[in-house]
From TrEMBL:
Annotated metabolic or biological route of this protein: Cell wall biogenesis; peptidoglycan biosynthesis
Listed name of the protein: Probable lipid II flippase MurJ
One GO location term (cellular component): plasma membrane
Keyword annotations from UniProtKB, A to Z: Cell inner membrane, Cell membrane, Cell shape, Cell wall biogenesis/degradation, Membrane, Peptidoglycan synthesis, Transmembrane, Transmembrane helix, Transport
Bilayer topology: Multi-pass membrane protein
GO molecular function: lipid-linked peptidoglycan transporter activity
General function of this protein: Involved in peptidoglycan biosynthesis. Transports lipid-linked peptidoglycan precursors from the inner to the outer leaflet of the cytoplasmic membrane.
Naturally occurring in which organism (per UniProt): Rhodospirillum centenum (strain ATCC 51521 / SW)
Compartments, record wording: Cell inner membrane; Cell membrane
Length: 513
């Protein structure tokens, strides 16, 4: 599969997942709104997601995929599959007791991540209950991450990218069931969340079998390959998960703010995650095994080519997404979420957070490319140094800005910190001589930026012209938003082609194997 096709596969399936996710979030906003009931569910859901992002899909994936790819390139498929079996066995051996421990220590864990709820014993007890329901998701999705890593290294990107769709479908079903049967909505959502982990596990197991991969649990042992995996995972846990750790910090600070702050940040981040998932994750997922193979083969020209194309794709898609979310946040939120328990005041508060988050989108997308360059060389230590500085900066900014700007200060701190992170990563690559980009991306980057800026002006003008439509019924608002997005997309395509930021002939070239 070509690099562009891999990005298109992961990005397209991730887009379907995000669409299903928006349906889920619209229903969640309808039944829970943005009050305390929604806040505690979002905290309970985020805890296993944080662990997943930091250790399963974060540290494990960025350490495992290059090692598996290198073993595959050097020793063949059988040796690579034996390494995967060993990694799976150690993962289960570590995560099973961890899950039991966290279930027992859930009150202390909740106190650490959301101490603002400790003063209300009833709300805090409910938070602990939801946390115990959702935490087992961690072990299920960790095995899914390993299965996805194996398939990605073999060039099969579709099954892993499709798995999150099942998460959203399970949670949509849980919401519908809660309304029909009369179950407490956040309890139903918590169970839907955990059940989705089992559904994804079954899906990936079937996909692995179809690819000729049968992962087996063996007696856990620290073989040389497994020891090397764990050594690289330690710094990788932090380096691969800067945004997730920023969210942990932001949630803790937000729990000290008035009710609704966590919900505003959650809904804003869900929209922010659309370009991050469709673009950033797609590029990072496709780029890591691709770079790892060429680094292992010592092909510097191909490494430079794919680094350049990854950065070019990231800017081509990430910059207009960031500009659009910053330019028209209220129309987007009004059309998608404003109904039922989610009112105009919630829309206005969430829009400000979304604009602040959008600032960091280009930096996040570029950091995916830079991190892949380090991880493909099995270097997880250098990115962790940048991550430590970034986290300290994010924490300091969030603490300084939240008393003045409230929840918006937390989102703004995350966006600013993302640029610091990508600057440090870029400098680290430059010092090692690994940031050699080709002339094409250097020529096109400023033209892409200009096209995105002009598209933003078009969106602002159209928002004023269509203002009355966004105060009408839900169907009219959604139709108006669709027209606004279509006009923005057409204008951006026209500008970027006119300025030479992209050529139609490139599409045919990029899709070739």
């Amino acid at each position: 599969m070509s690099f562009a096709r891999a990005i298109a596969t992961v990005g397209g399936l991730t887009m379907l997942s995000r669409v299903a996710g928006f349906v889920r979030d619209m229903l969640t906003a309808w039944v829970l709104g943005a009050g305390a009931a929604a806040d505690i569910f979002f905290v309970a859901q985020r805890i296993p997601n944080w662990f997943r992002a930091m250790f399963a899909e974060g540290a494990f994936t960025v350490s495992f995929v290059p090692l598996y790819s290198a073993t595959l390139e050097r020793d063949g498929r059988d040796a690579a599959d034996r390494f995967a079996d060993q990694a799976l066995s150690m993962m289960v051996a570590v995560l099973l007791p961890l899950t039991v421990l966290m279930l027992l220590a859930m009150p202390l864990l909740m106190l650490l991540v959301a101490s603002g709820y400790a003063a209300d014993s009833g709300t805090f007890a409910r938070l602990v209950e939801l946390g115990r329901i959702t935490f087992p998701y961690l072990i299920l999705i960790s095995v899914v991450a390993l299965q996805t890593g194996v398939l990605n290294a073999l060039g099969r990107f579709g099954p892993g990218a499709a798995a999150p769709i099942m998460l959203n479908l399970c949670m949509i079903a849980a919401i519908v069931l809660s309304v029909q049967v009369g179950i407490e909505p956040n309890t139903a959502l918590a169970w839907g969340f955990t059940v989705s982990g089992a559904v994804q596990l079954v899906w990936l197991s079937v996909s692995c079998r179809r690819a000729g991969v049968t992962l087996r649990l063996t007696l856990p042992r620290l073989s040389p390959d497994v020891r090397r995996l764990f050594r690289q995972m330690a710094p990788g846990a932090l380096a691969a998960s800067v945004i997730q750790i920023n969210l942990v910090i932001g949630t803790h600070i937000a729990s000290l703010l008035p009710a609704g702050a966590i919900s505003y940040l959650y809904y804003a981040d869900r929209l922010n995650q659309l370009p991050l998932g469709v673009i950033g994750i797609a590029i990072g997922t496709a780029l890591l095994p691709t770079l790892a193979r060429h680094v292992q083969a010592g092909d510097a020209d191909r490494v430079r080519h794919y680094m350049s194309r990854g950065l070019e794709f990231g800017l081509l898609l990430g910059l207009p997404a960031a500009v659009a979310l910053a330019a028209i946040p209220e129309p987007i939120l009004t059309a998608l979420f404003q109904r039922g328990s989610f009112g105009p005041a919630d829309t206005a508060a969430t829009a400000l957070a979304l604009q602040a988050y959008a600032i960091g989108i280009p930096a996040y997308v570029v950091s995916k490319v830079f991190n892949a360059a380090f991880f493909s060389r099995q270097d997880t230590r250098t990115p962790v140094k940048a991550a430590v500085v970034t986290l300290a900066t994010n924490t300091g900014l969030a603490l300084a800005l939240s008393p003045v700007l409230g929840h918006v200060g937390i989102a703004l701190a995350s966006g600013v910190a993302a640029f610091l992170n990508v600057g440090l990563l870029g400098w680290g690559l430059h010092r090692r001589g690994h940031l050699a980009l080709d002339a094409q991306v250097r020529r096109r980057a400023p033209r892409i930026a200009l096209a995105a800026a002009l598209m933003g002006l078009v969106l602002l003008g159209l928002e004023l012209a269509l203002h009355d439509l966004f105060t009408a019924g839900a169907a009219t608002r959604v139709a108006a938003l669709a027209g606004l997005i279509a006009a923005g997309g057409v204008s951006y395509a026209a500008f970027v082609l006119a300025f030479g930021g992209f050529r139609l002939a490139d599409a045919r070239t990029l899709l070739r194997r």
